[in-house]
């Protein structure tokens, strides 16, 4: 049981290093995107892809159901057909950016989730989104990786333990989603 207690203690310490002001900005950008009818996109690989998919579920169903103001959100991780077609026929680095080329427009919002901060397919998506005038938000580790430097807003998690990073990414997405689900934001 010592492992569990130590893990939870370290997770608590890690979570305490997340900047609440950055979370507030992300919530504000989500509200602005929703109110303007803009698209919100999210991408990531592996565990980050699963977190991205869960975020879409929480936003599209949880934060929109029964509300006059509804979100338009797409998980770039959620079409296995598109992902495998681009990966097979083009390259894996293109699986997110090529979807953005079809759907993203100026002033849309992209969440990019990467524990390493160096996933090429995520970086290419952020570079493209920045280039067309989208807002970009990175959920990544605060101590390294290119993603933290190229996103317009970075919500950095201190540390490098992938399990705790993903734990924190999940909590971050819940904070953003539940700001709307719990009516803390109109």
Question: What does it look like?
Answer:
- The protein has 186 residues and is α/β, with parallel strands linked by helices.
- The chain has a single domain, classed as Glucose-6-phosphate isomerase like protein, domain 1 (Rossmann fold, 3-Layer(aba) Sandwich).
- The protein contains eight helices and five strands, in the order H-H-E-H-E-H-H-E-H-E-H-E-H.
- A five-stranded parallel sheet has the order 2-1-3-4-5.
- Strand 1, helix 3 and strand 2 form a beta-alpha-beta unit.
- Helix 1 packs across helix 8 and helix 3 packs parallel to helix 8.
- The longest helix has 20 residues.
Strand-helix topology:
Elements: H1 2-15, H2 20-35, E1 39-43, H3 47-62, E2 72-75, H4 80-89, H5 97-103, E3 109-114, H6 120-131, E4 135-141, H7 147-150, E5 153-157, H8 162-181
Parallel strand pairs: 1-2, 1-3, 3-4, 4-5
Helix pairs in contact: 1-8, 2-8, 3-8, 5-6
